[in-house]
Every structure is written in C-alpha cells, then in structure tokens.
C-alpha cells in the first residue's frame, strides 16, 4: 500500500529502490497521516481502505466498514496498513459486528 499524489494505491509492492518493502510503505504513509489534520487523515485513510474493504466484502458494506476502521486510533490502524491480512481480519470483525447489529434490528417478519 503506498500513497501516490495524496491518494493510496492498493499495490502493496514496494517501489524499486524503496528498500523498505511493506514496512517502508507503512512508515511513509504513517508519517504522512500523522502530519495531517484529523479530517484530512480520515480522507486519506478512507481512500486507502475503501477499495480494499469493497474488494474483500463487497460494495454494500464498504462505506460503513471503512468508516468504522477510520474511527480506530491512528497508532492502532497504521501497522495494519503494512499487514493486509491483519487488516482484512479487523475489517471482517467490523463486518460481523455490522451484520449482528443489523440482525438484531431487522424487522421480525410479522409486519412490525
């Protein structure tokens, strides 16, 4: 995952000569995110997370799950950007919570 011109790309491969691999990408993105204001940080994170969440779990839940992930403390989410499988697990937990919440609040089938 790397940021190009303020937008994140789902390409987790390092650029030639980057030397840091995925860890380098996380560090670069981490520095950029920490330098941003809260609103800008949410925008950049959302641009990075939304396509991943959509690809993993579908466009129906991507907006809500992305929003849930953006709410996580920056120190906790940054390492996951370099460990996409761990990020996917966390997003999966958010999807499960969202679906469980929806099931509790779904109509009970008797018109109410």
Helicity level? 55-70%
The outline comes out as elongated
Low-confidence segments, given as residue ranges, are: 1-25
Q: What spatial order of strands do you see in the largest sheet?
A: 1-2
Please provide the ordered H/E string of secondary-structure elements: EEHHHHH
Structural class: mainly alpha
User: How would a textbook summarize the main sheet?
Assistant: 2 strands, antiparallel
> Hey, roughly how much beta strand do the residues contain?
5-15%
What's the helix count? Answer: 5
Architecture overview:
With 112 residues, this protein is mainly alpha-helical. Helices cover 65% and strands 5% of the residues. The protein has helices at residues 21-35, 38-57, 62-70, 74-81, 84-104, and strands spanning 2-4, 7-9. The protein has a two-stranded antiparallel sheet. The longest helix has 21 residues, at 84-104.
Give a topology summary:
Blueprint (H helix, E strand, L loop, with lengths): L1 E3 L2 E3 L11 H15 L2 H20 L4 H9 L3 H8 L2 H21 L8
Antiparallel strand pairs: 1-2
Give a summary of the structure in a few sentences.
The chain is mostly helical and 112 residues long. The chain has helices at residues 21-35, 38-57, 62-70, 74-81, 84-104, and strands at 2-4, 7-9.
List the keywords:
mainly alpha; two-stranded antiparallel sheet
């Amino acid at each position: 995952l790397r940021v190009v011109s303020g937008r994140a790309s789902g390409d987790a491969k390092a650029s030639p000569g980057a030397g840091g691999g995925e860890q380098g990408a996380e560090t670069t993105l981490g520095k950029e995110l920490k330098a941003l204001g809260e609103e800008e940080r949410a925008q950049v994170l959302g641009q990075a997370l939304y396509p991943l969440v959509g690809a993993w779990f579908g466009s129906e839940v991507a907006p809500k799950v992305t929003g849930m992930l953006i709410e996580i403390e920056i120190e906790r989410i940054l390492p996951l950007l370099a460990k996409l499988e761990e990020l996917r697990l966390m997003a999966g937990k958010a999807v499960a919570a969202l679906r469980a919440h929806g099931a509790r609040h779904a109509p009970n089938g008797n018109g109410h």
